[in-house]
Amino acid sequence: HTDTMLYLDGVSVAFDGFKAINNLAIIVQPAEMLAIIGPNGAGKTTMMDIITGKTRPDTGQVLFDGRTDLTRLDEAAIANLGIGRKFQKPTVFESHTVWDNLEMALKKPRGIFSTLFYAASDNDVARITEILETVRLISRKDELAANLSHGQKQWLEIGMLLAQDPKLLLVDEPVAGMTDSETEETAKLLRKISQTRSVVVVEHDMSFVRELGSRVVCLAEGSVLAEGSLDQVSANPVVIERYLGR
Ligand code: ADP
């Protein structure tokens, strides 16, 4: 598995004797998008917590980029390896402009306050412009983040993660609360990002998963219940019984 971006192998974790993740095996290739679906309590959030180092598994390994076992590292070290996580709710700096949010994200390794003292280099300007074009916010660059729509705030935060140049992006239910057209744009954006980076999306909205067009893994009780295309997974009788048919 030297050429895989992410390889979870035999991962288990129990909380007070309850196995939230049970011998889980997941593979994500470079420049591949994977959608994770499954009922509430399936272990989707716990899986993301294990990848990012928030939760340490009891057993198993989490191999990143073919070499590094993440289970030995803390959250900051894992983030620095190139793993970005987008939580469900947008967290942007509301009282700063769209542009300044991106500039802060770009300089984050040197500390947010460095933006107060260092002007952006030509390189930074080019990079921020490119990211704002990707997330379709270039025309709003001087707007305060507070004045963006909910969907635009989500895109801004995705842009801020891109500024960190992650190899793997973990995204938790990005379209909750979005309009239909924002949802469509988000699918397009994530598809574009996954041309060059690995993306894992946890999602309940099946029409959005269809728009993503990616491989799908359905989790239940901390293990893989089914995987394949959305059509394959959603035709699986066990998936219908345990998840889709309820
Ligand atoms: P999902 O994201 O798929 O809804 P979770 O990963 O949040 O599922 O939860 C999986 C199971 O583990 C649930 O039964 C949940 O109650 C339990 N769980 C998750 N985190 C903790 C924790 N920190 N302490 C105790 N139980 C937890």
TrEMBL record:
Keywords on this record?
A: ATP-binding, Nucleotide-binding, Transport
Domain of life of the source: Bacteria
MF terms (GO), sorted A to Z: ATP binding; ATP hydrolysis activity
Q: Name one GO cellular component term.
A: plasma membrane
The ABC transporter domain is annotated at 6-246
Transport as UniProt keyword: yes
Q: What InterPro entries does its record include?
A: AAA+_ATPase (IPR003593), ABC_AA/LPS_Transport (IPR051120), ABC_transporter-like_ATP-bd (IPR003439), ABC_transptr_urea_ATP-bd_UrtD (IPR017781), P-loop_NTPase (IPR027417)
Coiled-coil intervals in this record?
none
* Name of the protein in its database record: Urea transport system ATP-binding protein
Which organism does this sequence originate in? Devosia subaequoris
